[in-house]
Amino acid sequence: MLTVVIIFLFFAILLYFLLGGADFGAGIIELFTSNDNKHRTRSTMYQAIGPIWEANHMWLIIAVVIMFVGFPDIYSKMCTYLHIPLLIMLLGIIARGTAFAFRNYDAIKGERTQYLYNNIFVYSSFLTPLFLGIIAGSAISRQIDFAATDFLSAYVYSWFNWFSIAVGLFTVALCGFLAAIYLIGEADDDYDVKRFIKKAKILNGIAFFCGGLVFLAAETNNIRMAHWIFGNPVSLTAVIAASVSLVLLWITVSKGRKQIPRIFAAFQVSMILLSVGYTHYPNFVMGKNGQNFSLLTDHANANTIDDLGAALLVGSLFILPALFYLFYSFRSRRGGGHD
C-alpha cells in the first residue's frame, strides 16, 4: 500500500503543476500584457479557468494531506526549515484567489478597487509559483542544515540561495509557457491566437534561459545537477523525450492545431519533472552532510499507510469522475454558445 500512497503523492504534485501551474501562468501572462490587450486576455482566461480554478488546488490539498498523514517526519522538517517560503506561497494562493473572485464579482466595480484587485492577482500569480519552485529546489539542494543552531542558517540560507531562486524562476517561466499554450486553444479569433503563440515563444525562450541559470547556480552551490540529469538512462531519456515533444509542439502550432499542443506541453513538463525526480527517488528532502529523508523509510506506521492508501483509492472513485464531468460540462456549455 505504500507504493499506492507514493504514486498518489507524485500524481498530485504533477497535476497541481500542470493545472494549477497553468492557472498561475495565466496571471503571469496578464502581468506582461499591454493595457490595450489586458481585457481580451482576461476574457479568454475567464473562459479557460474561471469555472474550475478552485478545483486546481485540490491536488495541492491531496499532496499536503498525504505528506501530513503518511510522511509526518518529512512534513514536519519541510514546514520547519522551509516555513518562510511556504508561508509566502500560501499567502500568495489566498491573495490570488481572493482577488480573482472580487475583481470578477465586485458589485461596485470601482476603478480603484479593480486596480487593486488586478495588481494583487497578477503579482501573486508571479510570486506563488516562484516560491513553489524555491521550495522544490530547496528540498533537493542539500542546503538545509538540520543541525543549524542560529536563525539564518536554519530558516533562511536553507532556501535563500542561488540554486533555489533559479529553480523558482524556471518554475515561473514554465507556468507561463503552459498557460500560453493552453490559452491558444481557448482563443476565439486569429488575433488572440497569434498573441498567445507569440507569448508562448517568448516564454519558451525565457524557460531555456532560466534552465541555464539552474545549471549555473548548481555549479555555484556545488550541486551535481548535470550528473543528476545526464548520469542515468531514465533521466537522459526523459530529457530527450521532452526535447522531441517541444519540437512536435511547435510543428503542430505552426499547422494551426490548438488542442494537440496542450498534450505535448503537458508531456514535456512531465518529462522535465521525471528527469529530476527519478535521480533522487526515494529521497524527498536532502540536507547537508548527507542527511536525507526517504519516502520508503521515513513514513508512518503500516496501519496508517494502509488506511491512507485505501482512502485514496476509494476517494479517487468519486473525485476523478466528478472532476472530469466538471471539465466536460463547462466546455459543453461554452461550445453551446451560452454565457
UniProtKB/TrEMBL annotation:
* InterPro entries for the chain: Cyt-d_oxidase_su2
Question: Which terms are listed as keywords in the entry?
Answer: Cell membrane, Membrane, Transmembrane, Transmembrane helix
Q: Which Pfam families match?
A: Cyt_bd_oxida_II
According to the record, the segments passing through the membrane are 6-32, 53-75, 81-99, 120-140, 160-182, 202-218, 230-251, 263-281, 308-328
Question: Main localisation, per the record?
Answer: membrane
Q: Which molecular function terms from Gene Ontology are attached?
A: electron transfer activity; oxidoreductase activity, acting on diphenols and related substances as donors, oxygen as acceptor
Q: Which GO terms describe its cellular component?
A: cytochrome complex; plasma membrane
Q: How does it sit in the membrane?
A: Multi-pass membrane protein
| Subcellular location(s) of the protein | Cell membrane
What biological process terms from GO does the record include? aerobic electron transport chain
Q: Which family does it belong to?
A: Belongs to the cytochrome ubiquinol oxidase subunit 2 family.
> Protein name, please?
Cytochrome d ubiquinol oxidase subunit II
Which organism is this protein's natural source? Mucilaginibacter corticis
Q: What is the lineage of its organism?
A: Bacteria, Pseudomonadati, Bacteroidota, Sphingobacteriia, Sphingobacteriales
